[in-house]
Amino acid sequence: MMPRPNPTRAYGAARAGMPVRSQEADVFRRVTGALRAAQGEGAEMGLRAIRALADNRRLWLAVEGVLVDPTNGLPAPLRASIVSVGRTVLREMEAEKPDLAFLIEVNENIAAGLAGQA
After folding, report:
1. Confidence of residue 11 (pLDDT cuts 50, 70, 90)
2. 60 near 90, Cβ under 8 Å?
């Protein structure tokens, strides 16, 4: 019996060969795509928006965790600037009705910077 193809495993293997910055940009793009899809839900915060915001929150908390690590190789002023942006994003997500367009724009700018397009 032939094993069934596993697209998730194949995608993971393909991503593993990508440079780290490209992988990071890809994560931002995927989270941004979920936020963009949630924009179409109208005035009510639906399950899609709640899930997208939770994923975005996890992403930015992880980014902050990496940036406050003293062994991080980025220059301290750059790390501090990105942490400041991240905290602004986290505050926006705490709003009663978060500005998804703002969150999308910030994520797109970070992804572009990681991809060397900024």
Report:
1. very low
2. yes
Mutual angle of helices 20-39 and 47-68, in 10-degree steps: 150
Burial 59-89 (b: 16+ CB within 10 A, else e): bbeebbeebeeeeeeeeeeebeebbebbeeb
Distances (CA, A) of 11 to 8, 16, 70: 5, 9, 32
**Are 100 and 49 contacting, i.e. CB atoms less than 8 angstroms apart?**
yes
- Residues with Cβ within 8 Å of residue 73, at least 6 apart in sequence: none
Position 2 scores a pLDDT of 52
Model pLDDT, residue 118: 57
